[in-house]
Here is the input.
Amino acid sequence: MYKRILLLCDLEGINHVVGVPYEGLLSGTEQWEIARRQAARELNAAADALFEAGVSEVALWDNHGGGKNIDPADLDERIDLLDPKGLRLSFAAGKYDCVCYFGYHAMEGTLGGVLAHTMSSKTVQYYKLNGRYIGEIDMDSAITASHGIPSVFFAGGNLACAQAERAVPGIVTVVTKQELSRNQAVFRDNDELFAEIRQKITEAVRTEVPLCPVTFPCVMEKSFKRMEDAAAYLARLRSLGIEAEHPADDILGRDAHTVTASVGDMETYIKCI
Here is the structure.
């Protein structure tokens, strides 16, 4: 059984949340307030079940929009709320036995995905790794795997859960809502949802899930909605000594919206995100 548990929390995949058209889930909005209060309740249900099952530590990385979404006063006092600053998940190395995800969302371009995006709804069209679309669950599970930490549990919308199961075969999932469109979903009864979270997360920390690390070398492809953002990204990668280029295209000559980068290790992978 895993004893030291790290919870990762985004907000778009939380129950009772759909956002509003043409906007992200912005701090201070009505939907953000609903999301952060509901997130605390889902996290508390999980933490209570975990401590009851005998885990020794539960920590939380609040990672939506740079953190500081969950009000500490709303959290179970036994949860250690981490400082969100620093490289993406690099602080997790050696400190935790497994990772559990709450509120993560479907990747950009997912038909029906509630508030679907990948890293930035304003700028990013998609990411691919070796030609395969990836989202934030793929990225974070790969980074934790590089530290020897398995991803064992995921709670989010039904489409996000399907993508989590593709990213991490064997991960235990709980559907928080049925996703219908970017701003429409069928929500679950909270009592029923909390009971399933309690049951499934206890099951997850008692089940060994294989690591799913990235195999290097690989190719990261990032496509932007505006050419100017792609050009700035390409310049940044090259300034870091990363081999990168606009890919060749039969019609365009080179695709000015997209950048491909050669990735040889996890440090470079994180820089390319």
Summary: The chain has two domains: 4-205, 218-272. The mean pLDDT is 95. The longest strand covers residues 218-224. Residues 30-53 form the longest helix (24 residues).
